[in-house]
Amino acid sequence: MKTFDILSFGEPLYEFSELPQGETPTRYLSGFGGDTSNFAVSAARQGAKVAMLTQLGNDVFGDKFIALWQQEAVNTDFVLRHPDAPTGIYFITHDDTGHHFTFYRKGSAASLLRPTDLPQAAIQQARLLHTSAITLAISDSASDSVFAAIDTARQHDTLVSFDTNLRLKLWPLARARAVIHEVARLVDICLPSLDEARLLTGLEDADAIADFYLALGVKHLVLKMGSDGAMYASSDQRLRVAGHSVDTVDATGAGDCFSGAFLTQFLAGSTPADALNYANAAAALTTTGYGAVAPIPGRNRVETFIASLS
Q1: 4-309: which CATH number, 3.40.250.10, 3.40.50.720, 3.40.1190.20, 1.20.272.10?
Q2: Are 239 and 276 in contact (CB under 8 A)?
Q3: Around Cβ 96, how many Cβ atoms within 10 Å?
Q4: Residue 22 — pLDDT band, cuts 50, 70, 90?
Q5: Least confident of 14-23, 142-151, 192-201
Q6: Lowest-confidence segment of 3-7, 107-111, 143-147, 248-252 by average pLDDT
Q7: Closest residue by Cα to residue 286 from 264, 258, 307, 265
C-alpha cells in the first residue's frame, strides 16, 4: 500500500546565507538547505504527501530540521539520528559573479548512512523515491545506499526520480559522470540542469542532451534551463516553456523548488506541459527571496502568479 506520494532521500544542511551589507557589517541569515530537503519542502508546499529519509546529528541543527519538516507537514518517521556525527552546515556568500557555497559536511551524519540502515518499508510505501547526485557524492556508503534504495524501489513499483546536482568540490568530473550516468540508467525521471548536463555529457545542444539521457533509459527527461525556462522529453513527446522575468535576488535552491513542484504535479496527473509551466513559475518565485527554503512559494501563490500571466 502506497501511503506517501514522495520519499526524499539525501543530506540536509543547515544554512547561513550572507545578507546585503549596506552600511552594516556582514550578517548571515540562518536557515535550511540541502537539495533533497529543499525539494521535500517544495513538494509539501504544493500539496504532496512527503516523507524524508536521512540521518541527522543528535545536535541543535538536527533538532531544527525535525522542527522544520514537522512544521511543513513532511513526515519524519524515517529520519535517523546519529549519536556522534554532526548535521552538516554551509555558508552562502555573494559577489558580482553570483552566489558561492562553503561547506562543512565531512563526516556528517548523513554521509555515514549505510544500505543496512535503510528503512525498507519507507521505500515500499512511497509512490516515488527522489534522490540526487549529491547523495551519491558525499561518501561511498551513501552512494551504495542510493543504489540499494533504487533496487528496493524497483521491486515494489515505486517510481524513482533523480536530480543530477553536480558538485565538483565533492568528486572529480570523470567519477561523477560514470556514477551519475549509471544511476540515470535505473531511474524513471531525471532532472538535470543544462549547465550540469553539458559538463556531464560533453554536449551543448539541449535536444542532443535529451537524446543522450533517453538513450540511457530515462523515461522522462526534465532539463532545467534557469531563466531560459525548461524542457521535457520522452520517447514520444518533446516541449519547452520559456522563463519568467522576476526581480531575482538569490537563486539558491531554485532548481530544487522546480523539481518538487514538477513532480508533485506529475504525480497528480498533470500533463508534462502543465507540470513544466507550474514548476517554472514556482522556481521563478523562489528566486525573489533569500535562502533556499524560506522563499519557496505555496500552491496559492504559484497559481495566482500563473493567472496573472494570462
Answers
A1: 3.40.1190.20
A2: yes
A3: 4
A4: low
A5: 14-23
A6: 248-252
A7: 258
